[in-house]
Amino acid sequence: MELPKYTILVAGGSGSRMQSEIPKQFLLLNGKPILFHTIEKFHKINTHIVVVLPQKDMDYWEEICQKYNFSIPTQIIIGGVTRYQSVKNGLTWVATQTQEALVAIHDGVRPLVSEIVILNSFEIASEKGSAIASITLKDSIREVSESKSQSVPRTAYRLIQTPQTFRFSEIWQSFERVSDSPEITDDASVYEKAGFEVTLIEGNYENIKITTPEDLKIAQAFLS
Question: What's the whole-model pTM score?
Answer without folding.
Answer: 0.95
